[in-house]
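Allow me, if you will, to draw on your knowledge of protein folds for a short while. I have a record of one protein: its chain in single-letter code and its fold written as C-alpha cells. The full record is reproduced below for your convenience:
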Amino acid sequence: MTVAVANMPTVRKVRRESTEVSSCLKYMIFGFNVLFWLMGLSILTVGVWAWSEKDIFNNLGKVANVALDPAFILICVGTVTFVIGFTGCVGALRENTCLLATYAIFLSVLLLFEVTAATLVFVFKDWIKSQATIGFQTFIIHYREDPDQQNLIDWIQEDWLQCCGIEGPKDWDRNNYFNCSSKVVGSREACGVPFSCCKRKPNEIIKNKQCGYDVRKPGFAFDVSKIIYEQGCLEAVEEWTEKNMISLASYGFLLLFFQILGICFAQNLRADIFAQKAKWH
C-alpha cells in the first residue's frame, strides 16, 4: 500500500540585511561624549553650588562684574560642555541624525570661536593686555568682597605665577583694606599685601596669614625682597607664556584635532544612518 504524503511547505531562510551603521564608530562617539556629558554636569553643579552659597540667585547685584565671576564662568563652561556631550552621546546611541547634526554644529561653532580668539590674541595683544590689567584691578578692588575671586587671585599669586599685584605690590593700594590710609580707620592690613604675596619658607607647614603686614610701610625694618614677591603678575604671566609657548600650542592643536575628528565622525555616522534608511525604504 502506498501512502501519499502531503507536500510540506518549504521554509525559506531569509538572510537579514546587515546594518550599514558602524557599531565601532557609533559607540566611540557615545563613549567619549558620555565623559564630556558627566564632566559638564559636574562643572555646572559646582558653579551653581558656588552661586547658591553666595546667595547670588536672590541678589544678582552682589556680582560686581559677572564676566569675571569664577562661578559664572564655571556655569557657562559646564553648560556648553553638558549640551555638547548630551547631543553627541544621545545622538549616537539613538542614531538620531538631528542630534548628531546639532552636535557637529556646536563643535564647528566652538572650533571657529577658538580659532578666532587665538587669532585676536596675537593681533590685538596690547588690547588683551589692557583688558587683563582691568580685570586684575577689579579682582584687587573686590578682593575681600567675593571669596571666589579671593581664592582665584591667591592661587594666581601664590601657586601659579609667584607674583604680587599687577605691576608690583604697590597695586594693592587700590584695595580699601590694604591702602596705607586705611590705618586711620583701624585696618591692620593697611600698607600690607595678602598672604599669597609672601614667599614660601623651607619646610613651612602652616602658612602665616600675617606675613604681608606692613611690608609697604615706609621704614619697614626687614628686607622686603626676602618676604614677598616683588614681580607683578602681568610680567610674570608674559614670561610664563613665552616659556610654555610650545606646550600651549601643542595642547591647542590637539584640542582642535579632536574637535575636527568629532565633527567628521558625527558626519560619517549621519551618512551611514541615511544610507541605512534609504536601503530599507
In short: Confidence is low (pLDDT under 50) at residues 13-19. The longest helix spans residues 245-280. Helices lie at 23-53, 70-93, 97-123, 125-141, 147-160, 233-243, 245-280.
